[in-house]
Design brief:
The chain has 362 residues and is an alpha/beta fold. The protein has helices spanning 8-33, 250-254, 274-285, 310-313, 319-361, and strands spanning 41-43, 48-50, 69-71, 79-80, 93-95, 103-104, 117-119, 141-143, 151-152, 165-167, 175-176, 189-191, 199-200, 213-215, 223-224, 237-239, 261-264, 270-271, 289-291, 299-301. The strands form five sheets. Strands 1-2-3-5-7-8-10-12-14-16-17-19 form a twelve-stranded mixed beta sheet. The relative contact order is 0.05.
């Protein structure tokens, strides 16, 4: 812009106003990109948004588009809908714990393709929608602790290809469907303690080739099928404490072909007999298997041993069986000897009879 000498002051003023206008527009755009919903705390420097314990019954609108951490815990959310997280393309961590969530509608998380951690602990979820995992291919950790899930059915977890940690502890799970965990090839930690599982079936863990930690404590497991653990080459910790196991199948655990696996078996109602003693002895003789809480394993039956540590009474458990074997052996020997004696007597009597007959004939 060229200015005449007579209007230098006016021209300078016009330039100043133009600069101020540009600054105002730039500031408005910045504020728009970092807008923050009322009641939330937004940290501009790190794109953290905290809306915790603010009484929200819906996901607040107007969240910053660049948000990568969003905490909506301890609110009153009951339902998540398909468009609740629109435009949060960069979100990596989403905390929804301690709400009242009962319903996840289809595609509730479909815009969160970069999400890595999702925490929905302490809610009231009874089931996961079939398409739950549809857009969560980057998810690495999923926490669903203390909900009311009763069944785990496919294909709700099928597309969680990156998942490394799944925490389903303290729900009401009674069964895990045969294909429910298929596709979780990178899963390293699976927490199922505090549920209502009764049997560990063959084939349920077949595809979990990366699994390192499996926690099944505080369930009602009374049976582990022989091939249930056969496909877990990397398992380093297996927690089975506080279940309803009464007997131990050595072959079930011997099928764990791992570099080293630590076992937790205390708190079960063990029936202490010679078979159990032999099973635990074999288990402890296998180099790669370690019963960490063996000294805390106690007897539930027979009544006279209830509460006694297995390690203290193991030397007594086979005494009765040994005595029974000895009694049977002695009985058999006595019977055989008696038969031999009777046979000898009968032979002698026969010889004497023949001699008497020969004498009378002469």
């Amino acid at each position: 812009m060229k200015c005449e000498a007579s209007s230098v002051v006016g021209c300078a003023l016009q330039k100043m106003l133009s600069v101020l206008a540009l600054l105002f527009v730039g500031h408005s755009l910045a504020v728009g990109s970092k807008r923050c919903p009322p009641g939330c705390l937004c940290c501009d420097s790190s794109d953290l948004v905290k809306c915790r314990a603010k009484g929200f019954d819906k996901v607040p609108q107007g969240l910053p588009h660049g948000t990568w951490f969003l905490d909506l815990g301890a609110n009153d959310l009951v339902k998540l809908e398909a468009n609740d997280f629109d435009h949060l393309w960069f979100l990596k961590v989403l905390v929804l714990s301690n709400n009242r969530l009962k319903v996840l509608l289809s595609k509730a998380f479909c815009n969160l393709s970069f999400l890595e951690r999702l925490d929905m602990s302490d809610n009231k979820l009874r089931q996961l929608p079939p398409d739950f995992s549809e857009c969560l291919g980057a998810l690495r950790e999923l926490r669903l602790v203390r909900n009311v899930l009763e069944h785990l059915e496919p294909p709700c977890l099928k597309k969680l290809e990156s998942l490394e940690k799944l925490d389903l502890s303290y729900n009401r799970l009674q069964t895990v469907a045969p294909d429910a965990l298929w596709g979780l090839t990178r899963l390293r930690h699976l927490y199922l303690q505090g549920n209502q599982l009764t049997t560990l079936h063959d084939g349920r863990l077949t595809m979990l080739l990366s699994l390192e930690v499996l926690l099944l404590g505080n369930n009602s497991i009374s049976e582990i099928e022989t091939e249930a653990l056969v496909s877990l080459p990397g398992l380093s910790l297996l927690g089975l404490e506080d279940n309803r196991l009464g007997q131990l199948k050595f072959k079930t655990f011997h099928n764990l072909q791992t570099p080293g696996t630590h076992l937790r078996l205390s708190g079960n109602p063990w029936s202490c007999d010679c078979d159990l003693h032999h099973a635990f002895s074999k288990l402890q003789s296998v180099r790669h298997l370690h019963v960490d809480d063996y000294k805390q394993v106690t007897c539930h039956e027979p009544a006279q041993l209830a509460g006694e540590p297995l390690a203290r009474v193991e030397s007594q458990l086979c005494v009765a069986e040994t005595a029974t074997v000895l009694v049977i052996t002695i009985t058999v020997l006595v019977t055989v000897m008696a038969a031999i004696v009777m046979a000898e007597r009968n032979r002698k009597k026969g010889c004497e009879s023949e001699s008497d007959s020969d004498f009378q004939e002469k």
